């Protein structure tokens, strides 16, 4: 029986785990999945269980008695697959935990934002490391309720088929997985999409509302144009992670509302409740992943001698908000430009 552990079970980890648990219960396979996360979530889930919903109408409830959630790491010893869902800044710490507890044959799947986490893990671990990508957004609504507000298939880099049992389990849980021999272009495509996380966090409004406002879209057009120029200088062509071709995104963002709404209706499926994970981080007073998203563009810009003033300014604004510890600053679009 395949055993799975989710290390860093926050919004993404709990949503994926909740879908797997619901599927396991339907197939009468309890006890094969363990979540490892913060005490705050443990208390919520012990009290309320896990509820997973999505923008398409999915609604599944898993009672607390069927959820193994712990704040301890020793359960990693039995795991065949470790789904790593910690923030990028916590990757090295997570690798130390895995090195201490996991068996040599455990397959570690990095379901994290950013483009370098799998390489960081490989530097510190002897276990097989699989790069992964989560395209959708999950927002925690409290009381064990995790809501997926955007579309997309999970992606993993698995040329040797190490994840076939995991992939089968995810597919049965209605979490479709696309398998690649090389995920790097897909990860850069996701990075392009994730550059909006900071804009959304700083605006303090739902994603759909933010993207419906042309002033914020014009900011995003600048953010994306800088990023695409930097990646071109680096010789990187980001792959599409949904229906939108990355190089067309700045043009799409500049469209008038009427035209944008027509394009968005066929390419961007976003729930009215969806918000970025970075917004949630600011609301909870946590450090964000901005250094691994917009900050990655700034870093590559410096390396390639390509100016990135808008991304640089947004990184500074997010760091100011982190220090202020008062949630989203709810900035206007104009304030997001240097």
Overall description:
- By secondary structure, the protein is of the alpha/beta class.
- The protein is 44% helix and 14% strand.
- β7, α4 (117-124) and β8 form a beta-alpha-beta unit.
- α3 (91-101) runs parallel beside α4 and α7 packs across α12.
- The longest helix is centred in the middle third of the chain and has 20 residues, at 214-233.
- The model has no long low-confidence stretch (mean pLDDT 94).
Radius of gyration: 19 Å
End-to-end distance, in Å?
Answer: 55 Å
Physical arrangement of strands within the biggest beta sheet: 5-2-1-6-7-8-11-12
The pLDDT mean sits at: 94
Offer a few descriptive terms:
eight-stranded mixed sheet
Write the SSE topology.
Layout: E1 4-7, H1 11-26, E2 33-36, H2 39-48, E3 50-54, E4 59-62, E5 69-70, E6 81-84, H3 91-101, E7 107-110, H4 117-124, E8 129-133, E9 138-142, E10 145-148, E11 154-157, H5 164-172, E12 177-180, H6 184-194, H7 196-203, H8 207-211, H9 214-233, H10 249-253, H11 257-267, H12 277-283, H13 294-304, H14 309-324
Parallel strand pairs: 1-2, 1-6, 2-5, 3-10, 6-7, 7-8, 11-12
Antiparallel strand pairs: 3-4, 8-11, 9-10
Helix pairs in contact: 3-4, 7-12, 7-14, 9-13, 13-14
